[in-house]
Specification:
Structural class: mainly beta
Helix content: under 10%
Radius of gyration: 15 Å
Strand content: over 45%
Oligomer: single chain
């Protein structure tokens, strides 16, 4: 089994910064992509940023220039550093990972989601 633990959410004033982390643990063979999603109140969950195992990144237009996603493969951890926060960045942020686990002789790929962490940006 694989577990994802997120941390770093909280309340911050507009213009401030916040760093989230997402750590995967368990019977992991390797981790492919990792990403962050946001669900604002009353809205659907949307992708915010993603990073591949090789370090290639992609960002939603709404966060480009303000958000940086990185990962530490040795720690199975992804980070989301966001600066110049705006009230519209408020929401629950979820980490999503694509994980390979070994069940000999099968190597299986599954998607895992974190429990979500609340980010509230006050104006």
């Amino acid at each position: 089994q694989v577990q994802l633990v997120e941390s770093g959410g909280g309340l911050v004033q507009a213009g401030g910064s916040l760093r989230l982390s997402c750590t995967a643990s368990g019977s992991i063979f390797s981790i492919n992509s990792m990403g962050w999603y946001r669900q604002a109140p009353g809205k659907e969950r949307e992708v915010v940023a993603g990073i591949t195992s090789g370090g290639s990144t992609n960002y939603a237009d709404s966060v480009k220039g303000r958000l940086t996603i990185t990962r530490d493969n040795a720690k199975n951890t992804a980070y989301r550093q966001m600066n110049s926060l705006k009230p519209e960045d408020t929401g629950v942020y979820y980490c999503k990972t694509e994980v390979f686990t070994m069940s000999p002789p099968v190597l299986r790929k599954d998607i895992y989601w974190g429990q979500g962490t609340q980010v509230t940006v006050s104006s």
